[in-house]
């Protein structure tokens, strides 16, 4: 869904190449980015009333998206720190 907000490329524009590389080479990274995309699409579908959700479910989905986003960012920045410190 190209019109879905909060895509990883939008959230981390400086890391698009690293995201692509890690998705191809790191199974855990691929799994959490896939989970992020599923949750993000679910939020978008709920917000646009395609699949309405109650406030509690929306809050849970948003918390999960934030948790996954934090983990993804942590992996991206750890990789960057490892690349700059021999």
From TrEMBL:
<dbReference type="Pfam" id="PF04325">
    <property type="entry name" value="DUF465"/>
</dbReference>
<dbReference type="InterPro" id="IPR038444">
    <property type="entry name" value="DUF465_sf"/>
</dbReference>
<dbReference type="InterPro" id="IPR007420">
    <property type="entry name" value="DUF465"/>
</dbReference>
<protein>
    <submittedName>
        <fullName>YdcH family protein</fullName>
    </submittedName>
</protein>
